[in-house]
Amino acid sequence: MGDQRFRALRVTETPAGTYERAVVERRLDELPPGEVLVRVSYSSLNYKDALSATGNKGVTRRYPHTPGIDAAGVVAASANPDFAPGDRVIVTSYDLGMNTDGGFAEFIRVPAAWVVPMPREFGAREAMSYGTAGFTAALSVLRLTELVPVDSGDILVSGATGGVGSLAVSLLVRLGYRVVAVNGVVDEADYLREIGAAEVISIEDATDTSGRPLLKGRWAGAVDTVGGPLLATTVKSVDLAGAVTCCGNVASPELPLNVFPFILRGVTLVGIDSQNCPMPSRRKVWAKLATEWRLPHREEGVAETDLDGLGGCIDRMLVGKHRGRTIVRVAAGPVTGDR
After folding, report:
1. Which residues contact 163 (CB under 8 A, 6 or more apart)?
2. Which of 13, 148, 207, 256 is deepest in the core (most CB within 10 A)?
3. Tens of pLDDT along 217-242?
């Protein structure tokens, strides 16, 4: 079995220091060690994948490499008694697609501790329509629901046209919250209203430049996906006992903020770590996405590509011309891992 060949997107560093992408054939015995071999049906495209695919050493240290931080399919072989051949599974986060060959390939081999049994309500395609972005959004929403009742007021979502932001909007609306979405550089107001935002505001309206330590309370809570000045403004604009979840730093990792929102209004700032989230919480979130939080017709609004078309999708994501979710049909033949 070790010499069995499969297709994978491979990123290679050239002698000139540039990076090239190509779909190549690999052998199973070239995969890293691990207890569970998974035949991948679907993956999905995330911003971290796009960075890895262009040689970002902050994401991936060593090349050649196969990106893909998400994968869903069936177990092909297992050295762990918790998983057996034919089991439908999801693998997201941890080191998958970063420094461990990832889901943009027909097979992955990973530690058993990274593997989540796929909820029976899901197929592989639907699971990847959520992927890491959906998992991160759901983890953010879960923490927000623990701190902010539905009738408390408006919830702000930044980066709302991206994978995490758009799913956070949809989930919050599904749960009954009134959502105000921050529109990005490209005008996507119509799209944001389509997915349920009650109000759409500009980045300029959501970002304070006065430097004041505390602002008028506008939000009961927020899901922030961008960081930087917008996050600082959001925290300063949250009303009494509100909460903000933070899961990104695409704008900046710096947070120009003082303690006043925390000691004068009791605001809670919650960091979201979807990469190393403990397995019990991970299973809980996936179970919610598959049942009570399931978004009707979720798959219909998701773009799909295959390994051969993936390069163009990566290029569009890197120049900001990407919205919502793109899933990757990895399986070359009949899809495995669906119901």
Report:
1. 46, 47, 131, 133, 134, 137, 324, 325
2. 148
3. 999 999 999 999 999 999 999 999 99
